Amino acid sequence: MAKLILVRHGQSTWNAANRFTGWVDVPLNQVGRTEAIAAAKKISPYPIDVGFTSMLVRAIETTAICLTQCEGACGTKSPIFKHDDDDPNWHGWDKYDGDKSQEVPIFLSSCLDERYYGDLQGKNKAELAEKYGKEQVHMWRRSFSIRPPGGESLEDTAKRTLPYFRSRILTHLKHGDNVIVAAHGNSLRSIIMELDQLSEEEVPKLELATGIPTVYDINEEGKVVGKEIMD
């Protein structure tokens, strides 16, 4: 039985400022790093075979902290971040496969990036609610198919996250590998929508707190047979 560990990144500097972040590449703040350390302790019993994260630093930071600050089975190996570009400056070391007994490969992909919020990025959510109304901002943030101005809907986000999940992540789970995915509220919501078989009407109610791991038990057929939210 494989474990799938999903973790929304810890609080970022823009989360704390109540700003729409999307694809703006901001780091964790101290609260976020503390949340990631707490997540590491919660997942410490589980040995991790492979990890996946987005191209954004707040998710990458969370991944690194989760795999270096845990004291149990998940912290026995060093994470190695894998790069898909062919930059010659790497001298081939971006393709380093490592020693599986000592290292955990972590694959970065833009498919797991946060939802693109378009014209809303960088703007304060409360100020937008005053300007456009709370209901309109809520629809931009939480609806399945409504796009914010110039941005992606959750439906659009799912069109990139789910094919990647099925082809890359689920393959490892079917082979029995324990997998950690540290990503973002909306990229993870789209994956959880499929795992939990949520409808388009149910998914707007799904809230993911920063730094709280959700652990799924996945059988060899790729089916969910158990779930725990480690809050």
Structure description:
Strands 3-4-2-5-1-6-7 form a seven-stranded mixed beta sheet, with helices on both faces. The protein has 231 residues and is of the alpha/beta class. It has one domain: 3-Layer(aba) Sandwich (Rossmann fold), CATH 3.40.50. α2 packs across α3 (57-68), α4 (125-132) packs across α5 (134-142) and α6 packs across α7 (185-195). It contains seven helices and seven strands. The longest helix has 21 residues, at 154-174. It has helices at 13-16, 30-42, 57-68, 125-132, 134-142, 154-174, 185-195; strands spanning 2-8, 50-53, 78-82, 103-108, 179-183, 213-218, 224-229.
Helix content: 25-40%
β-sheet strand percentage: 15-25%
**CATH class category name:** Alpha Beta
CA-CA gap between termini = 22 Å
Largest sheet: 7 strands, mixed
Report the mean per-residue pLDDT as an integer.
Answer: 95
Report the count of strand segments: 7
Shape: globular
Query: How many domains, as an integer?
Result: 1
CATH superfamily: Phosphoglycerate mutase-like
* Second rung of CATH, namely the architecture: 3-Layer(aba) Sandwich
Low-confidence stretches: none
What order do the SSEs take from the amino end to the carboxyl end, as H and E? EHHEHEEHHHEHEE
Strand order of the largest sheet: 3-4-2-5-1-6-7
Descriptive labels:
alpha/beta, seven-stranded mixed β-sheet, 34% helix, single chain, Rossmann fold
Layout of strands and helices, then pairs:
Elements: E1 2-8, H1 13-16, H2 30-42, E2 50-53, H3 57-68, E3 78-82, E4 103-108, H4 125-132, H5 134-142, H6 154-174, E5 179-183, H7 185-195, E6 213-218, E7 224-229
Parallel strand pairs: 1-5, 2-4, 2-5, 3-4
Antiparallel strand pairs: 1-6, 6-7
